[in-house]
Amino acid sequence: MPSPGEAAPADLAAMLTMQRPQVEAMARAWLLAGARAFGITSHGQVLAAWPGPEALSAAQIAPGAAGGLASEVTAEGHVLGELRVAGLAGDVAAARLAADAALLAQLAQQERELDAVAEELVGAQDQILALYDLARAARSHLSLPETLSALAGETARLVATDGAAVLFVPDDGEPAWGWHGPGVPELAALLAAFRCLPANGRELILAGSAATHGGDLLLVPIHMRDRTAAALALARGPGGAAFASPEIKLAHAIAEQAGAQIENVLLYEETLARARLDTEMALARTVQMRLLPARAPAITGLQLAGRAVPALQVGGDFYDFMPAQAGRACTFAVGDVSGKGLSAALVMAMARSVLRSKASGGATPAQMLDGANAELYDDLTEVAMFATVFVGQYDPAARTLRYANAGHSPVIYGPPGGPARLLEADGTALGVLPFSLCQDYALPFDPGALLVIGTDGFSEANNAAGELFGYERLLRLVESLAGSPAAAIADEIYAAVGAFAAGQLQADDQTLIVAKGVLP
Amino acid sequence: MKMKWRLIGKIAVLEPIGRFDAHNAPAVAEALTEARNSSLKDAIVNLEQVNFLDSTALATLVQGMKHCRQLGGDLHLCCLQQPVRIIFELTRLDKAFDIYETEAEALHAFAG
User: Fold this and answer.
1) Could you report the predicted ipTM of this complex, rounded to two decimals?
2) Potential cystine with B21: which of A64, A176, A374, B54 (Cβ 3.0-4.6 Å)?
3) Is A433 on the interface with B (CB under 8 A)?
4) Residue among A79, A411, A129, A122 at smallest CA distance from A253
């Protein structure tokens, strides 16, 4: 079948079918003028002859028959055939035959153009219908894999082919694809072809491709988000017709439509993910804030202040005050659960309750951490998390602060009038090892002594240049604030770290307890 | 972050590159799970090209270490840059892991 836009030669036989009455009128005129026979030949074959019986007339005008006239019917330099007349001669008859031949050539030409236009119309109509079907089929799918599969299925149906695939190659992350039909190459082969796509947005045809076992592969780029992010692949096994221009055009039209569909789905998925994340974060923040103590307990000889500012992406920080009761010294704890989001907030809630339960009965900080680790180890292993925890206990009679540290930092101790220093952990975080390595330590805690237990949200705060706030700065800051009351020190630390990281997103929770020895 | 992984004998050697944080910890976790599913009980994480770890990354390594030990194997760390070494010291995870200066030493420790 000739294609629109291609120079298929005009065809006398086709013209004769469509224009028979006109040619018959022409034949009658010749017979009236005295011709014995009139006919049309093409490439040595008689297409039609008059007056009939046809076979008899055909013999008289057949090429090579004696006597008579012939005139070539030519269109665009191609000889389509000949008009032949038997039983007439002379210049007048020859000129008339030449004029008739020219007329028939024109008729054949017009017939051909009409065909081409009609075919193009039908083709366009097919494409519109095809694209309508495609849009309708893809619209009902909301996930990317489903959409890619639906697009591949529809494409295979619309372009009669052995297999179709739609490939999506994101900037980062794994490529995704959907396919339909037995002739589809492996994903690796498609990806290799994808990387060979020309930059000008044109298709790629691999003829006799190994990927299609000797068949042809047509790859049409899908442009979206300012780059070629996807492609439509059509495969045809060996022995099938080569991909022709109308199919390639149709494939481009489908590719454009598919690009819009994929983009819609991506937008939808992104919106959904963001909404999900927002909900989760709001929940996590609620869990986290609800569990923090509303106010610090009043203790003779000790000022306590606790603060927590969760990051946009909530982590699992917590702090807790367990006031002195019968058989229990005033105990406080700061912890940080690895990871972020709702899971971290839930594990934080769990760790906090377990610690509370271990605080009774005169347990020391190390015994509390020991017990908490034993109770939490399996659960923490199950969810692949751990929790760093610092536990402090104030003894007002002895003016000492007993503590144990399970992998927590930063913890800063400033003796009255002395330089501040980091108190490094001696045990690993809860959930790391099935046993605890923590021991109890005692710090003299006279009036003026200072203990700041923060979380890594302070030391790892970034400034615009990407610099970390770091431990050094934190130590100097704590020294400079040593003269203030505990609550003021807490506020100043937030202010200083906030000013350092001005304009940067707070990446992690910032939680702290400040304990300060005061005169009773 | 990119990650390479190799097999030396029956020991999986992972080499994360760049920042090792919540965004790319899943890739490391996946590689460790894959090694575990292939019945490899020993692994080495070479941190030579890692300049930062966050708590999710540490949790991933801890989980990997636990899994290896469950199978009777271990997860060794090697080639820690100074900032990374400090993170391990501050969190005392240096007590939980066997940490080696070089990959050769980490490998050799399995042989012994």
Assistant:
1) 0.87
2) B54
3) yes
4) A129
